[in-house]
Structure prediction request, 399 residues.
Amino acid sequence: MKYDVILIRYGELALKGRNRDIFEETLMRSVKAVLTPFEKAKVHRSYGRMYVELNGEDAAGIIERLQRVFGIISISPTKRVASTEEAIKQGALDLIRSIKPAPATFRVVTRRVDKRFPKPSMDVSRMIGTHILRNVPGIKVDLHNPDAVVQIEIRNEGTFLSSETMPGAGGLPVGASGKVMLLLSGGIDSPVAGWMMMKRGVTLEAIHFHSYPFTSERSLQKVRDLAQKLAVWGGTIRLHVVPFTEIQTAIRDRCPQDYLITIMRRFMMRIAERIARENGALALATGESLGQVASQTLESMNTITHVVNIPILRPLISMDKVEIMDLARKIDTYELSILPYEDCCTIFTPKNPVTRPKPEQASRFERRLDVEELVNRAVEQTEVEEITTKPREAGAELF
Prediction:
């Protein structure tokens, strides 16, 4: 069957009460943005649903893009027919006959939103099921494990018939929850954290600490590529590249080795907070997982964040490494993350970093440094890049 409309369903948005329109408009903008290359496709919404009128555009290509839009719970390619008994019967019959290979069993599921239609949902399902049984030789009804499901939605704007439902990315539409600044390294964890934050509706900007010449241009390019992977899901990402060599060298030369990582990350937090506030971000996000490394004990996180007054979001905090790696593979960042280009967090790692640092001890060591001047220079010298989307590579998994 040649489909003419893609039906979009969204889950959490239906629970937003008086703010529902705002969330739906945000989702509408996201859908229109990803479908820009499909000039003939038209997007509109009705209560509880959104529709893409194909107008001859490629349904598969549009569905693939829609599956990367947060806020969508499922997608169905549909055929729209008039809301009359005869039109629905004929449409359902055409649909079941178009399924290849031909199903041996089927069931009909009806949702009647338009209460002006004279028959209730169960009666419609029985009517259509009977019509199919009479006109398709050998086919049988199976309510529990059918080969095919004929889905019927009777709505004010028409009746929609489908036999396929594809999962969406879920969550909330990007832009619905404010802006967050992600501390993006070249590792496995932080891109996954960024993806999880976008799934909760945030507009994401990223900040990366680059220690040239200790870290190479290839290391920075890896971070750009990771940001590009995230941009596929959330649109253009602004990447703030902070020169960090001067700060790391000063810490190495003047502070105890066991506190090197702690003080370095305290500087990162100070700089990230400044850049976040200058760019309207309401929180920082990190890829920290409790207990994974020395800087991610409760004592370390407390000491590191002691120097800032901005919310720190840690979406991976209770996940183990295997779970994080699995998610990295699904969002297609894992292979990039394991490329052997060091970032600033690994080049000066001491042999025995302190695992239970104290804020007052870190502050005492930092008195050997001109903290304010170092932070100011790093912020002033930060460069910003616009990371745009690119087509997803074949074979990457979708949700």
Remarks:
- Residues 391-399 have pLDDT under 50 and may be disordered.
- The chain has two domains: 5-167, 179-387.
- The radius of gyration is 26 Å.
